[in-house]
Amino acid sequence: MPHLRLLLAGLLLTACTQPEAPPQQGESVDLLITAAVVLTLDDGDTVHRPGYVAVRDDRIVAVGAAADAGRFNPARRLDRPHQLVMPGLINAHQHAAMVLLRGMADDLELMEWLERYIFPAEGANVDAEFVYWGSRLAVVEMLSSGTTLFADMYYFLDEVARAASELGMRSVAGQTVIGFPAPDHATPEQTLAFTDGFIGRWKDHPLIVPAVAPHAPFTNSSETLLASLELGRRHDVPVLIHLAETEDEVRQIRERGGTTPARYLHDIGFLEDRVVAAHGVWLDAEEIRLLAEAGVGVVHNPESNMKLASGAAPVVEMLEAGIDLGLGTDGAASNNDLDMFDSMDFMAKLHKLHRRDPTVASARQVLRAATIGSAAALDLEDELGSLEAGKKADLLLVSLAEARAQPVYDPYSLVVYVLEGSSVDTVVIDGKVVMENRQIPGLDWEELAGRVEQYRQKVAASLER
Fold this sequence. Notes:
Blueprint: H1 2-17, E1 27-39, E2 47-48, E3 51-56, E4 59-65, E5 72-87, E6 89-94, H2 110-125, H3 128-144, E7 147-154, H4 157-166, E8 170-177, H5 188-202, E9 208-214, H6 222-235, E10 239-243, H7 247-257, H8 261-267, E11 275-279, H9 285-294, E12 297-300, H10 302-307, H11 315-320, E13 325-327, H12 340-355, H13 363-377, E14 395-399, H14 411-418, E15 424-429, E16 432-435, H15 445-464
Parallel strand pairs: 1-5, 6-7, 7-8, 8-9, 10-11, 11-12, 12-13
Antiparallel strand pairs: 1-2, 1-3, 3-4, 5-14, 14-15, 15-16
Helix pairs in contact: 2-15, 3-4, 3-15, 5-6, 12-13, 12-14, 13-14
């Protein structure tokens, strides 16, 4: 027995004095994600089943087959065998704060909707706090449904940028310039002066791209349009505009100058590659050619166009012409949600019905419009829109652990025709996990909901007067 005690003591001493196991070998990364499916949306539409995405700082380091993920030594890993990884959705046109006007006035023609309800409600209620809380609500809705970047056109844009950046959301934030008194400025000249400072305040922010947003050709003079373009050129930022959304807009431009909206912008020298045009419903073949030659990005908003009966944009012709075509929801006052999964589903089905051709607006084309297409329309395709080494780490993980998500034959078809915003589990923006297990850190929902109800009561009272 003494010998046994000595042997045990020796073994214990040896165990306690053994050097620590060497650290795991491999390339150090901050985040390693493995999943059942990885949709890259790269030029070859590469799909890995199963696959991985490796992230260091704010960039993607590598994407590949899951069998090769062992070469990395991650600080954190997310192993999601029942989820799909894809690029973050890019909502390339909307008006975030208008979510506070959601459902206020529906089932109306656009001009009646604007002139009798929206413009009066905005005039009576929109201030910096309204925009901040409305934008915060919109950002929560978008994060919860897989959007990682939104392009915005509205007022008090410092508040839009603040609301987005606080929750880790990326935004192209466009200050609206309009040819009549707006909630934040009385004249276009005042707005442009403000926008100059706004761009300077946010231009170097990692999540915010400030922009100039002249509202539309029919709401601004040619002088204001060109001054907006010049400001965009001087700061090298995007210029966002509504274009050819309705037949009534086309009529107004014809009555004013004997031409059409896109031809008018071409004739005054407004069209160039920094311009991003929302809608483009009533473009003819020559106008599509003019936009393509100038490098103008176009953003399709199918749900808003359908709900307001504006028409079906010629997206097939725009794609054939080589236009960078993105996808958006438009504002929640005219959609009425900010779920890009809904927008993808509607885009595909609208154009199949409109053209009576089930082969147009394929699931693959639609998903590309919502990711790399939107990035290209905003001139951000070198940084965003696909899962490729060197690009920003903006991505989402979508649950496949639900009956509607099985089986998975074609992941493009699944994403566009089956999944919903509520299927999104985790969102990563700029390399940071900003939503996990559908929880958003730093969100006080009770406070936000309380503020929204206060504004609902205020807006409703203003419409009764």
